[in-house]
Design goal:
152 residues; mainly beta; Lipocalin; 1 helix; globular
Length: 152
């Protein structure tokens, strides 16, 4: 388990992505009675992350390691690279790591957060693939985008 300093650093790095973009100026229909099994390692990417009024967008790549007990998800995320386009854009090299918190799976629906509930992911599971939307809030900016993950 990482110390509070590392979690704070990870949250700070992710908030930096929100600030970089701001400088640029899914839900399934039902599911099984038992939750899908998502325990294990997944490659993860975020794309088309935008903020209102910004002219660019951000994307990132990394991995997720889920631990699952019934419908509860915990684990850790690692972001290897964040790239933002547009004026003021740039790249942040990782790794950026932190805990997956407040995670749950309901049938094929998955919902989890990075570090804090301000970094929110919703999606669906289909076999060895997950897709969904993300909504990140920080420094007075809200970014929305899409994410996908593939079981490794």
């Amino acid at each position: 388990m990482r110390g509070g300093c590392m979690r704070g650093r990870a949250a700070l790095m992710l908030t930096t992505a929100v600030v970089l973009l701001s400088a640029c100026g899914g839900d399934g229909g039902g599911g099984p009675s038992e939750p899908a099994n998502v325990a294990g390692t997944w490659s993860f990417e975020v794309h088309e992350m935008t903020a209102p009024g910004a002219t660019g967008q951000c994307g990132m790549t990394g991995s997720l390691v889920f631990e699952q007990t019934g419908s509860t998800l915990t684990g850790e995320y690692t972001i290897d690279r964040i790239t933002c386009t547009g004026p003021g854009g740039g790249t942040i090299e990782g790794p950026i790591t932190g805990p997956i918190v407040s995670g749950e799976i309901d049938g094929y629906k998955v919902h989890f957060h990075f570090d804090t509930e301000d970094l929110d992911q919703h999606g669906t599971v289909s076999g060895s693939r997950m897709t969904g939307t993300c909504n990140w809030r920080g420094e007075g900016v809200t970014m929305t985008g899409k994410w996908s993950a593939q079981r490794m």
